């Protein structure tokens, strides 16, 4: 199949790295591995930070120009076999695909479409209506988490969904984890942004303060506009325990993780978190909260320990278990690597996408 791929939140070609850009690129690669010809159809970004009918109207005008451009192109060269939209939601609806798919009678598909009734008001309602209409039109909505699937099915009657677990490219993680050191090496990789990310950093700092008597050292990879707030959150901890790496190139992450023992990130508000899969691929067991989409990527009691949301003492207790028991870390490490390499690799995702496109979308390669 010739697939027109679109990511209204952030194009795969966007210059700023993020989890959304990474997943968009991996979806294209997985589609290609499944035997399809997937190409970015439009770089248009419909993201709006704030609810505004004026901003939505401007995005609509931009979308109309893209629709006209693609219509001319398809009339000349022929349309694709399907339109595949990644991550439409109330801040970044797909304003192109549903229109063109209906006009040219091609299947419309979404991946990680999300819908929440609490956003269906005020300035966001116009965008929410577009998300709902797209999900209703889609021959299949591919969901990465059960939470997203439940949200669609509760809000939209007869919506068609299929599950595709979050995945990563495991090829950079072929080396085994490093050897044990005197102090347990804890790792955290995250942007420093206001909101959920800063909340996670603050929770981590408070939990570490409860286990300061144990031998650990924390490596923090990341930077951003909330860096000062993050640094302040860790100010009460011994400076010699903290290794601030700042922002690094994504390709450097596997080697950094390979030097760690445990991945520690509370995950406040995480949709699912690709960093958890990357850490496990590097052989690091995870300590996180049992919240949002985190249980979709960490197997509690098998590849990591998940604690109750907001429970800092339980989070500290999980840290204490891993820091004080190298044998336990080794057991979890082996299971973590096997989980990601066998079940959450890009090749596994390609196989699943092939099934979805062939069976649920009613289209063949």
UniProtKB/TrEMBL annotation:
UniProt key word Transferase: yes
Gene3D superfamilies in alphabetical order: Glycogen Phosphorylase B
Signal sequence segment: none
GO MF, one annotated term: glycosyltransferase activity
InterPro entries reported for this sequence: Glycosyltransferase_grp1
Domain of life where this protein originates: Bacteria
Keywords from the UniProt entry: Transferase
Database matches in PANTHER family: SULFOQUINOVOSYL TRANSFERASE SQD2
Protein name: Glycosyl transferase
Source organism per UniProt: Sinorhizobium saheli
Species lineage: Bacteria, Pseudomonadati, Pseudomonadota, Alphaproteobacteria, Hyphomicrobiales
């Amino acid at each position: 199949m010739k697939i027109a791929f679109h990511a209204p939140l952030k194009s795969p070609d966007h210059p700023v790295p993020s989890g959304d850009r990474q997943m968009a690129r991996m979806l294209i690669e997985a589609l290609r591995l499944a035997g399809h010809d997937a190409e970015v159809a439009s770089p248009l970004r419909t993201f709006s930070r704030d609810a505004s009918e004026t901003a939505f109207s401007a995005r609509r005008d931009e979308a109309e120009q893209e629709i006209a451009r693609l219509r001319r192109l398809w009339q000349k060269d022929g349309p694709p076999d399907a339109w595949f939209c990644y991550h439409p939601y109330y801040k970044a609806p797909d304003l192109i695909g549903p229109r063109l798919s209906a006009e040219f009678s091609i299947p419309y598909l979404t991946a990680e479409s999300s819908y929440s009734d609490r956003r269906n008001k005020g300035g966001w309602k116009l965008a929410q209506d577009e998300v709902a209409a797209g999900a209703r039109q889609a021959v299949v909505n591919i969901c990465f988490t059960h939470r997203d699937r439940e949200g669609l099915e509760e809000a939209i009657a007869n919506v068609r969904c299929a599950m595709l677990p979050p995945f990563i490219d495991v090829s950079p993680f072929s080396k085994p984890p490093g050897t044990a050191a005197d102090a347990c090496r804890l790792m955290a990789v995250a942007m420093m942004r206001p909101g959920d990310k800063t909340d996670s950093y603050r929770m981590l700092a408070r939990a570490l303060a409860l286990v300061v008597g144990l031998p650990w050292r924390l490596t923090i990879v990341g930077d951003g506009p909330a860096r000062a707030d993050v640094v302040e959150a860790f100010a009460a901890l011994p400076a010699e325990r903290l290794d601030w790496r700042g922002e690094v190139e994504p390709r450097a992450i596997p080697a950094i993780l390979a030097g760690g023992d445990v991945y520690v990130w509370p995950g406040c508000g995480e949709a699912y978190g690709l960093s958890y899969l990357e850490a496990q691929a590097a052989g690091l067991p995870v300590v996180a909260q049992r919240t949002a989409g985190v249980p979709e990527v960490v197997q509690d009691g098998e590849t990591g320990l998940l604690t109750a949301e907001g429970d800092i003492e339980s989070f500290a207790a999980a840290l204490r278990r891993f820091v004080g028991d190298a044998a336990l870390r080794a057991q979890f490490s082996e299971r973590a690597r096997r989980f990601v390499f066998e079940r959450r690799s890009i090749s596994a995702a390609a196989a699943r996408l092939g099934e979805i496109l062939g069976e649920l979308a009613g289209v063949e390669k």
